[in-house]
Each structure stands twice: as C-alpha cells, then as structure tokens.
## 1
Amino acid sequence: VGYGEAFATARRIAGGLLSLGLSKGDVVAVQLPNTLEYLLTYFALALVGIVMAPIHVVYAPSEVEPLLRHSRADAILTADPERARGALALQGKLPDLKHVLSLGKPPGNVVAWDELKRREPIPDASDLAGAADPLHMAFTSGTTAGPKTVLVTHQTALSTIISSISPLGLRGDDIILSIPAFSHMFGMAVVNLALSSGGALLLLPQFRPDIFAEMLHRKKPTFLFAAPAHVAACLKGGLFEGKDLSSLRAAYFGGAVCPPNLAESFETLMPNGTANQIYGMTEAMLISSTRPGDP
C-alpha cells in the first residue's frame, strides 16, 4: 500500500468517524495488532483531531475497562467480533462509551470498520488538528502501579522523530520492521519514523520468534527495531541459523538495556549492519540512541 492510497483511505475513514458524531477532542480507544487497519485508523484520527488511546490487543475486558474509564473513551475499535461483544458488555458501566467498532463481521449495535471506508472522505483542505492538539493518550506505569495517562501532542510526537531521521541513518527507500506493538510508545515511534522518512513499514501483527526470523530472511528489511528479548529468543532457539540478514543496515534495541554480548552476537549475523541501543520515554518518544558508525 502506497502513501497516496493510505492517505485517501484515511480520509474516508475520518469522514466515517465524523458521521458517527465523533469530533475533535473526542477519544477513541484502539485495540488492534500491528496491522494495516491500525495504521489507517491512526492516520484518520490524526487528520480530524480525535485522540487515539492505544490498548494492548491481549488485554481482556476486565483489563480494558479501567483504561476506557480513565480515558473517558467515546468509542473503541476492536480486532474481532468476540472482543466487540466484550466491549458492548462494558457500555452499561461506561457512560462515555457511545460506540463500539470492530474489524470483521461484527454483531448488532457494533459498527463495522469496513463500513467507515465507504463513507464520504473529508475534504483535502480540512485542517482540523494543530501542532498543539493532543494526538494520542498513552498509558504507562501499569506494571508497577495503576496506569497513568500521558497526553502526547502532534508536535511532541513528531518533533523528536523528525530530528532523529538523519542521525539514525534512515532513508526514503528503507524497509523498516518494528517488533514492538504499535500500542506501545516504542512501536508508535517507529511508525512515525517511517511516516516522516518516507520509508516502507513491514508489518508483523504479533511477535512469534520463528515468524520473525523468517521475515528477516525473506522480506529483507533494512532497519530493525526490537527489544533485546525478541532477538534473544531467536538466538536461544537457533532460529537465525541459515538465515540471510545481509539486507539489514541497522538494528536498534529499545525497551530495555541490550546486553553487549547479545548485540555482538546479532551484529555478527549482519554483514552489512550494526547493532545499536535506543532510548525513549512515553512522554517524549525518542530521547537518545547510538548511531551507525559509533565506536
């Protein structure tokens, strides 16, 4: 899918969201894996100033409920009819939750995501969102305490990203693979890096070591963004044996400190690439990183 087609589809989805009565400043929770539907929804929400609240796709309704209540979400987009039914059951407890949307063939009272794509697009000249407007609502600290909300503006999300493209060595002809979920700030940073550099984003819906290793071999990404644990699982299982990783120009490890021996082991598999450490915060996207060519 090219950027022109993605933009045209996002404009139609944006028109569909507005036709539901949603408007700038409303909050839509998105509980999808790393798929094209996730990206198109993100673009559509950004175009019209609706705030996205990403939720990890593995969360059960009992885990989703406090996030919807905390964000005062006006709508939620789910990955399948089963999750949509779970969201419908929460509406009686969540007075702000007006709409449930879903991929696939949803049950009654649920809006089909495919239907949004058939609505009238917003005009080309629509300028509903500004740099200071909130882009998405991220949840953090949920592993040590109750989640807190970080409201990230368009400017915050893109300013550090745009300034990182050149130091990271990204080009418009790069093929970028993100292993972290787009519902995590690390994954969203990679989406914005691809969007801002003009590179192609290679999609892996959910991490599985064997599929990850095979994708590196067959799809030939030039940039990899992953957590150390993703690569460690493949190294431990011998899944990189016989795989050609010569397409990789750089691998960036984030989400945790990458042990030097793991970086060295993976770098030996990349005859044309380097292993690097990247660091970021939910509040500010990317903060710092090593660069290809650093000693």
## 2
Amino acid sequence: PPPPPPPPPAFFFQPEDGLRDRSPSRGLGDVYKRQAFNDADVIVIGSGAGGMAAAVALARADKKVLVFEQHYLPGGWCHSFPMGGYQFSPGVHYIGDLGPGGNMRQIYEGLGVANDLVFLELNPDGYDHVHIGDEYFDIPKGREVYAERLKSRFPSEADGIDRYLATCTRISNQISDDFEVRTVGDAIKAGWRKRDLFLQGLLPLDRFLDRFTKNPLLRAILTIQSGDHGVGPRRALTAIHAAVASHYFDGGWYPKGGAKALPRAFIKELRRCGGCLLYTSPSPRDGLLSRMPSSA
C-alpha cells in the first residue's frame, strides 16, 4: 500500500524580539489557525526581502496579511544566523542608493521602516577595494569622482570611461522608468524612452564593454561588481550589471546590527499594521546549528 500522506505542518508564532534567535516559539493552536486563514485578505509565501516588502505594503493599505516562512529564521537572503559565537549574514553585503532622494531610501521610507533602521556608511574614498594580481584600485563614492579616478589611472581611455558610466546610468534609469502603455502609440513612445535598455541593455556585458574599451585591467575593474549579481561578464546581461553599478554610484552602507536588522524592521511594521508572520519550522534546539548544511 502507498505510504500515508505526511501530516500537515505545525505553525509557530514569531517571538516578540523580532527574530527567532533567542526565544522558543509557541505552537499555533487549531482555533487560531482557522481564524488566521479565514480572516486573511492576502497570504504571502516567504519572508525574504520581496515577500516582506509586498506584505508590509499591503498591510499598510489596510489588508489583513499573513506571511508564511518555511525556515526557522525570517528574512530569506537577509537573514542572519549564529555559529561559533559569531553572527553570519550570507546575503547582505552592502546597500546603495540610501542618500537623500535615493531609490532605496524612498522604498524604506515609503514602507514605514526607515525609523527602525540605522545604516553605517562605508568609506566614501573606497567602499570597494579591487585587487587584481599586483594591481589595486579603490572605487569611491560619487560617479564623477569615480570617473576622474579611473581617467587618472587610464588617461588614454577617458572618452570610453565617460561614455560607459553615462550609458550605465541611462540604462539603470530606464529600467526604473514608470511608463503606462495603453495604446500602440504609447508602446512606440515607451520603446523610444527605453531605447538604451532595449538596444544595449540586452547585450552580454563583455560585448557591451567592447564599445568602450579593450584594456583588460580597466574591463576587470568595471566588471568587478559582477560578484554582486553573481554572473560573469560573458553571461550577464548588461542591464543587470548597469543597475548594480548605478546602485552604488553614491556609495555603500551596511545596516547597524547586521543583516537581521532588515527583517526585524519589516516584521515590526507588519505587526503595527495588524499582519502576522508564521513558520512551518520550530526554533532550533541545542546542537542544531552545528548540524546545519554548509550552504546555509
């Protein structure tokens, strides 16, 4: 006979300190489960950055939101976990666009979490340190400052450097450009407004670079942030890399308290708006973290 179906998962409350790294969870009773499901307007699967941003936005719009997380820690790639007396944050390296008027700053402010977050700015004279063989180069805050430093190091490449950075900026701006398309005329206008995105942003990054420079060291410096999106220049779309590079033109920041400060702030705002975060995994017990797979 076929094996019996697995039992339905148990659900667990989010503890009051905002993260599941200190206090044990309490089982969610059947009555509360039925009430939570029946009352929810929206169910969000996953408490990563995207899921929590959607959940908080909906909760702030007076929707009853229920978030489910299969891990025992919230945050997805923004989570942190303890091991060997240290806190590890596997997904958040640094965050850009947090200056006045920056897109990320506006997102945090618009979602009501800005007052629960503190960001520490990385060294503006070199928030990224490039080390290639015996060559060193520090990427500074500010696109113009970055351009001047590159041109000082590669004076014969000045024109290509200016054109590369300007094109990356246009592609990034066109990605985020909000344009409503209702008619064929609107579609034609949108194509024109986003022409750099369509004509250059869909090229592989290494072919895009061919338009600006052949210098191997300069190409390496301009693509060093490929580590932030995880795809090498031969396979990465230019649009992805341009968006990442432009994201950091105004420098980098790191959340005080580590990456877990991000889900903590989102959970706090979700609760303030009446939302709820539930788990299908209990809190870890003694010795569990030592048995976690290395991919965690």
## 3
Amino acid sequence: IPASVTSIGENAFAGCSNLKSINLPANLTSIAYEAFAWSGLTEVTLPDNLKTLGGYVFYSCKDLKTLNMGNGLTEWDASNIEMCSAIESIQWSDGLTKIDKEAFSKKSKLRSFTFGPNPKLEEIGERAFAESGLTSFVMPNSVKTIGESAFWWCWLLENITLSEQLTAIPSFALAYTKIKELSIPASVTATGYNSFSGQESVSPYTNTLTDVYIYATTPPVKCEDSYASYSRYISGSARDATLHVPYGTKDAYKAAAGWKDFKKIVEMVDVDGDRQATASDVIAITNVIAGKE
C-alpha cells in the first residue's frame, strides 16, 4: 500500500483469500469495518501511527497467526480477531490501558502475548485469557487490577510474572493452570476463592503447584468479589504447596483465614524483599538476632 495512504475503508480487502501478506504504510491512522475480513493474511504488523480500528477488521482470517498491534492504538475491540482460530502470537499496543472481558478467551493456539517497552496497561478484564493456550505471561508493572477467572483453565500456562502494582488476585484468576511456582508481590492485599491453583488434569487428579512465595508482611484478606461468601477460599491443590512467607511473619500467616490452611509454611531468607537470598539477607537476620534491628 502506498506511503501516501492514511486510511483504509470498509471491506477494502474483505474476502481476498489469496492475500497472504501486506505492508501497511507508516502514516496509516485508521482501518475501517471488516477491511481485511475473510482474507488469507498470516501475519500483520500495525504501524505506530494507527489510532483506530473499525471493528471486525480481521474477522475470520483463519490463517492469521501473528499480530503486532503497534503502539498508537487508543482502543481495541475483541471483534477485530473474532474467529481467528489460528492466532499464536500477539504483541499488545503500549497505548492501550485495558484488556476487555473475554478479549482472548478460548484462543487455544495463542502461546505468546507480549508488550512493548512502555506499556500503559492498567486492567485485565474477567476471563480475558480464560481457556487460552498461553504457556507464559509477563504482566507489566503498570497493571493494577485483574478480573475474576482472568487466566482460568489456561492448561499450558507454566510461568506467570505478576505486576508489582497488582492489588488483588480475585477468584479463579489463576485457577487450573500448570504453574509450579507462584510469586505474589507485596502489593497484593486480597485474594479470592480458588484464586490460584495448579491442576494439570481432573481425572486422574494431578497437582502441579509446589511453591507459593508471598511478599506481603500482612496476610492478604479475602476479596469482596462474586465468591466472597465461600468460607474456605484457598483451594485444596494450593494448600498442598509450600507457602513461603516473609521473615518474621510465619505466625501471622498461620493464624490468618485461608493462609492457615496451607500444610507447610516456611519463612524466606529473603529479608530485604529483593526476591534473592544474598549476603544482605544474612546480615539483616544476624542484626535481628543480635538486637541491632
């Protein structure tokens, strides 16, 4: 497409089943409704100057595997890749602040979801990635909230890094994954019913979660969400894991609702909170014992 083009109209390339690739000009600012719907595109990179998409832009592009959004988008609608069953990799736009409810749920082939250098994402909606094929996920530190069941039944999800600004892990947000070790930042003050668990299969039952590292010195309380009435809110598979808590907080966690149900609670050597056992931690512990701190 020529460099002079700044917009692409409705249905411009709709139904072009033999269209496998396209180079979009840097000055492009808008793509209208169903512009590439039912086309044969396999990979798309949106330019950074692109601000708006008209909805259903790549609808039913059955061969689309890779989508790089660019960093200029100010809004995104899940309809743009609806029925794109082959999607494997998405790079999210740094300009977008929210991933909507069920935006990428049931994308069973989606393995990679990454971000640019300066993400502004603040919210991940309910069931946003539920039942998707993600294998790992690094949450930008700009994220403050995630919705219920955000990563529910992500059967292939083995690793997730949570935002250092995340305030809560609501019910079922990380339930039924293949996560083995989960690190919960100090910013988290509340968790929900079965908010995290590792379960590779139901029959026969297989628990994958072995270790939970939590950095809050005060045990998080129960989320006031849809499952707030459930009294025993940390799942059985989670309770089977070893809970690693900050130095000096074991008694608090052993007395706290939900957390006390963990069968094994141990204190971390990581006293200074840098998530590493280093000489500074040993010095800090020595000072506590000697009464210097």
